[in-house]
Each structure stands twice: as structure tokens, then as C-alpha cells.
Amino acid sequence: MPVPEAPVVPVPERSGGGLFGGKKRLEAENAQLREWVERLGGLDAMQITAATELLRAEQARLQVAIQDADRRLREIEAQIVQTEDVALLQEVGVYEYQHPLGDAVAYKAKLAEVKDKIKSMARAGQAVLGATNWTVNGSAAEGRRMVRDFSKLMLRAYNAEADNCVRTMRPYKLQSAIDRLSKAGEAIVKLGKTMHIHVSDDYHRLRVYELQLTAEYLAKVEEEKEQVRAQRERQREEEAARREFEREKARLRKEESHYRTALAKLLANGDTAGAEELKAKLEEIGAAVAVVEAREANIRAGYVYVISNIGAFGENVVKIGMTRRLEPEDRVRELGDASVPFKFDTHALIFSDDAVSLEGRLHDELRERRVNKVNPRREFFYATPAEVRDLLEKIAGQHLLEYRDVPEALEWRQSVHGAAPAV
């Protein structure tokens, strides 16, 4: 019986779709080999030995082809720069400033200096360098002109990539942008190899520095915007508290005026017993006015609240904040008015003459449990109401005014169970 011919297995091609379709092609070749081996069942020992040698030779050839394909795939992957936002965002960490400056204005001024230096280097011919001994038809002048023209063309392509990186910059895209710009420089080196045209190291470093400053400028701008938003929120809260204090004092003063008028009438009528009762009431009103004025004067006094919103943030997430309002529930209602789909539930309320410090201590104790570890003004924490209650009792003593462990979350529970919408 003749030895069956070994299947012809083509080596993966070096261009086109051959590289990326190699896996399917190898699977097909393996299927051919298995079919060939099955046909060996009717061969004698010498024929099987010859067939085995053929198989070993084919296997060695395939192994070399696979190694060559893997090597070329790695080369191609090394030339790829990741630019997808989703992939870049998955890798982003807390942004760290490499060139920390005071504020966005300082970054903007530094960027202006860098841009001026970029223009100066380009005008002085220090951005792209090339051969100085190139000749065209024996003419050194023509050679210099050709090198100069090609250098300008290469610089224009490099600057277009750099400007695009600056224009589309986001802080989390910084490393990707630097990689893209470096690849552009490498491409210029390859294209200008015959005339030794390349982007100078100093110019490339300057443009990378521009990218870094741009990323930090954008991060600082967003940081300052967040600070402004937080400051405006504090001002709105302070203004609401001030109006509340004024309304309460006006109410108490009006009530005091009524009692004084009634007291004068009782004294005129000789009703001393009734007059004594009104005097006691006036003393209570005076004490209440003093308390409101003291609260108004002490900007650190107020309520620390612990609230949750299971429908918006899930279980075991609480918000710990502070308000100077006379009625702290007013602040809780405001937080649940528009920014979240359901109302907040109050778990704890505690009054303190130094509510600012109490809130700060609670935040410090739960620092590692912050939901937002970048922006400390976001006061949400992964904790149960019971855990916060235990902290409050340890830090603030027995001044807990109100505590509820299980959130009512009526709107959320009704929504989950398919309640009909209110008419």
C-alpha cells in the first residue's frame, strides 16, 4: 500500500487578512491532518514510519509558521495606540498633578509661555532636523531646499497630530495622547530616513509638556468649578437658614407683642393671677428668642443628619450632612426634591453646638468607606444606619434626638410592587 501524501499546509501570508485569519486556517489544517492519520490504519510498519516522519516535518513547518505569525502580531499590536474612551476610563485612577500650580489662571499663563516657545523653535528651524549634505543633481543648494521642504511637510503632519491631541484632551486621555504623538514622531523618522529627517528631542519634549499642562489645566478648571458649586450650595443653605431665623424671630416678637398687650389689660383690670401667667409666658418667649439669636450668631451650631435613599443608591449607603436650619427636615426634603427619583429617609438627627466638627469627625471615621473617594464634598458612605448610630453614641454621647434603623422608603417600595400612579 503506498504511503498517502501528506496534506499541503500553506504557511500564513505576511500581509492582508492572512495574519488575523490564521487561527481558522490552522484549525482547518488540523482537521486535514486528523483525517490523514485516520487513513494510516491500514498501513504496515514501514509505511507508518515514513508517514510519521512526514508528519513530524509538517509539524515543525507549522510550528515555525505559527511562531512567525505570533511575532508579526506582536509587532502590529505594539504599533496600536488605545484611543477608545471606554477602555481608557476603565484604567483611569485618581488624577495626580505632575506640575502642580496654584490655580487654572497659573496653568493658562504657563501654557501661553509654552506655546510661544513652540512657535519660536519652529521659526528657528529647531523643531525638525534633517541631512545637511544632501544634493540634488549635484547641487547642494537644491539638496538643502528639498530637505527643507520635506522637513516642513513632516513638521506640519507632526503639529497637526499634536494640535489634535491638545484639542481633544481629557485628563484621562493624557498617556494615550503622548503615545499617539510619539508614534507620529516615529513615523516621521521612517518616512524621512533617507534624508535623516526627524523631530528634535527638545521639540518633542516641549509638545509633550504642553499635553501634560493641558490635561492639568482642564483638571484644575473642573476642580475649581466643583469648589464654586459647593460654595454656592453653602451660601444657599446659609441664606435659607438666615431667612428661617428671621421668620422665627418675627413670629416670636409678634407673639410677645400680643402677650404684652394682654398683660397691660390684665394689670389695668387688677387681675394679678392672670398677669402672673402672662409674665411667665413672656419669659418663655424671651428665652426662645435668645435661643434663636444664639443659633443665628453661632455659625457652627446645627443638626447633623444621617439619611438614606434605598431606591436611588441601594442598601447600606447613607449620606451624612449638616444643616443650620431650625427645622432640619426642611433640608432633607430639599435634597430629595429633584436630584433623585425618591425621597430621602431620615435615620438620625443630632443637635450640637459644634455640628461642623461633629460632621467632620464622622466623615473621618468613615473615610475608607466613601462612595466618592475623589470629591470629599460628596457625603455618601458605604455604611448601615446602625453603624453610624454607634459612632454617634461614641463621639457625641447621649444627644441623639431621633433614630430609625429601617428606612420607610414608601415611594420606592410602592414603585417596586407596581403601585398605580397617583392622579
From TrEMBL:
Which keywords does this chain's UniProt record carry?
A: Coiled coil
- Source organism superkingdom: Bacteria
The name this protein carries in UniProt is Bacteriophage T5 Orf172 DNA-binding domain-containing protein
| Bacteriophage T5 Orf172 DNA-binding domain location | 312-395
Coiled-coil regions listed in the entry: 59-86, 211-295
